[in-house]
Amino acid sequence: MKRGNGILLGVSSLPGRFGIGTLGQGARDFVDRLQMSEQAYWQVLPTSPTGFGDSPYQTFSTFAGNPYFIDFDDLYRDGLLPQDALDMCGDLFGNKPDAVDYYAQYAGKPQVLHLAYRHSAARLADELLAFKQKHAGWIHDYALYMALKSEYKMMPFYRWPEELAQRRSDALKAAASRLEEKAHYHIFVQYLFFRQWDALRKYANGKGISIIGDMPIYMAPDSADAWMDRDILDKQGRVAGCPPDYFSETGQLWGNPIYDWDVLKQTGYAWWIKRIAHQTSLCDYLRIDHFRAFESYYAIPADAETAATGQWIPGPGVDFFCQLKNALGDLPLIAEDLGYLTPEVFDLLRATGFAGLKVLHFAFAPDGSSIYLPHRYEKNCVVYTGTHDNDTTIGWYNGLCTAERAFLDAYLDGIDEKCVHWQLIRLAMGSVADVCIIPMQDILGLPSSARMNRPQTSQGNWQWRLLSGQFDDGIARKLANMTRLFGRQHPAR
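Above: the chain sequence. Below: its structure as tokens.
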């Protein structure tokens, strides 16, 4: 990756009038701000349909796009939404511009999308056919899964009638016939998402902005993937998580099914190759979440109350990445190598050649031993002040103990409490790391109330939104000046 700066901001956090960020004008305006402030990268969160807890890391599909992100103004402009459907939007999504109301999205977005379907699906028949052919490896099963979820009042698939849960061919054939129109609606919605996503990426690339996507390592327990591909999942009643860590004294119990890597290896990792090929086609770089699980993964009994009783099991290791490279060539991947790290994890990262992550919030242990201190970096890494799982820098600073503050003060040669966020941004930018990514909340100097996620909690996350005009000219100029100072300016300049 070329030396440069970027901003971390999920699509859901963009400003706009539909209750959540979309792929429309608000996204294009943000790209323009990135260009103005000399940024080279925009890192987003996963863009798949959110499921349990509204988390982008617990999704109904690892291939599909999130219908909530479809922009209705752009649909109307393109003649795909009637005027009366656009007019009704103002009453559906509330009037709270600084936070996402996910229930309003769940209840309101389908109403408008069904009107778009009735208005334009028939005349898009050729485009929809081409779309189905391009995405034939997943779109039909996903559409049927979503149609069945609607029929069974959104219950998880493992609570459906057994013949459907187990995907018996006669039951699937009958369901596909019975729900043909409803499944076609979900294909249409995916067409709209990818139409707008492709247009946004083209717009960003035209402005010199590279998009960094984000891919969760695990599929959700209730997902089209788990329904379709159970043969590649663990059969021993274990789920994913991580041991006690920075975020939780009892570890994190995610509950996702873990993979049967022996079965995957026998297939030549076919499912993963299909998934990586799809995801890398959508962005310029792709961050793989929880990279350390490819070396060894943490497996927890499914009936455990906490993650403390899990155990480490060897993962597929370098063989997996060799097979990926053989199938797909050199890949633009970034390894999220955070968590419990061992020499074997570092060996795997070096063997792949991928850039790893450095997080300043983890750096200031009073004994000075942290690998996240900038003087220990190598160029091939991506440095953050914090990630989507961290507190904002202002909130993080307020929570430091006396010894940590003393070490930070010494490292910075003095703390300015009014702009400690800019001090950390400067520290990240001035490092040798090829890429520096700053959460939008830190550029704005926001408190803990703007935090995106609190790990090991299932309510109240993923809601924060950027207000229109909040990323103003003054902040953009300040960011641009610091970017140029450290030789990270926009590649087009």
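Residues 264 and 270 are 7 Å apart (CA to CA).
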